[in-house]
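User: Could you check the structure of this?
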Amino acid sequence: MTVLDRKLLVITGKGGTGKTTVAAAVGVLAASRGLETIVVEVGDQGRLPGLFGGSEASPGEETRLEDRLWTISIDPDQALLEWLQALGGRVPGRLLASSGTFQYFAAAAPGAREMVSMVKIWELTERRAKRARDYDLVIVDAPATGNALGLLNSPGTFGAIARVGPIRAQAEQVLGLLKDDRRSAYLAVAQGTEMAVSETLELGEALERQLGRTLDGVIANAMLPRRFTTAELAELARMDGADGGAGGRAGADARVLHAAAAAARSIHERARQQHNLLARLRRGGFEVVSVPFAFTAKVDEAAIRHIADHLGRSLQA
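Assistant: Sure, the predicted structure tokens are below.
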């Protein structure tokens, strides 16, 4: 059973590691395999339509990116407002948003926004007669690790507070989805840095504590290739004159050769450090899939499709 066989796939990790790019690539991969897929951005971000050449969409609006691939951005404040409005009957949203009741509830109930956002995500995994389409896979481009754990922990927190009633029922439904390894999966996105690897290990431990789950895999993003063998590095040193082998090289040629050799050694050392750090994740029992560094000026649809192709060959978890 792969991560694409579940109803819900949560993708998180340290901020700045490329979570949104990876979530989009996994979405492209799933759609190419015939799955009706939606990628959910949490936090009123709405970046995906732009990456696919479209215009900005409003929060809460399901937007088509390509065949079988959709996206939606969930604004936690708007989601909470809609939820309170549903409880309040016909109270206008504008009036409720400006009222002291809304502000008091939002401040007095930590995690309320996260809980309601999770309910919205859960609803996307369910088949509904009133919705225009049903999805085979819901991919959550979750916030960075700490906030993502708060998001995932919110159903348990609210379920404990609300012992009866609709809030308790919703919390139990969401929590059941998050804990069920047949219906949900978790991927972390990391890079080959000390902080990103340490945060990924902590994420795995926190998932175990909170939900009794483990990471189904780690996507190591922007990994540099190891281009040189030991013999080739020795040859670089000889040509550079580091071991006295350059002889009479001088002037501009020597400076160019030295700069090229120094750059090659620097990239090799950085790649070595990255791969050594990822070895910590593998020793921790995680399945690690590496995504090569993209030597492009910006991430665009072509780059996303390239990553999707790579993941399609490598992602087995």
